[in-house]
Task: inverse folding
């Protein structure tokens, strides 16, 4: 299948993907840390979704509760993941 055909299928099946803003940082340039507002939005979206839990068994409700009790924990975790270019194993 041609590359253009595959891309067209992806764009049709996943229309929101096309509207995502992508930003690529050159090597050596530091990624800006996540802000409290960004984490608030992400946690709110995760809590609203009625999806199955992943391999770590962490639900949106759990993320929301942790963030409510200790917002700096998730912000610190997310920023550490970006700095270390690593994601904790679930």
Result:
């Amino acid at each position: 299948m041609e590359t253009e055909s595959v891309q067209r299928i992806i764009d049709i099946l996943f229309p929101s993907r096309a509207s995502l803003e992508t930003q690529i940082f050159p090597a050596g340039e530091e990624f800006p840390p996540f802000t409290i507002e960004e984490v608030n939005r992400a946690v709110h979206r995760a809590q609203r979704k009625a999806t199955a839990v992943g391999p770590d068994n962490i639900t949106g409700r759990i993320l929301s509760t942790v963030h409510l009790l200790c917002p700096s924990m998730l912000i610190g975790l997310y920023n550490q993941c970006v700095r270390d270019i690593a994601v904790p194993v679930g």
Q: What stands out?
A: The mean pLDDT is 76. The helical segments are 3-13, 15-19, 36-48, 60-69, 71-84. The CA atoms of residues 45 and 52 lie 14 Å apart.
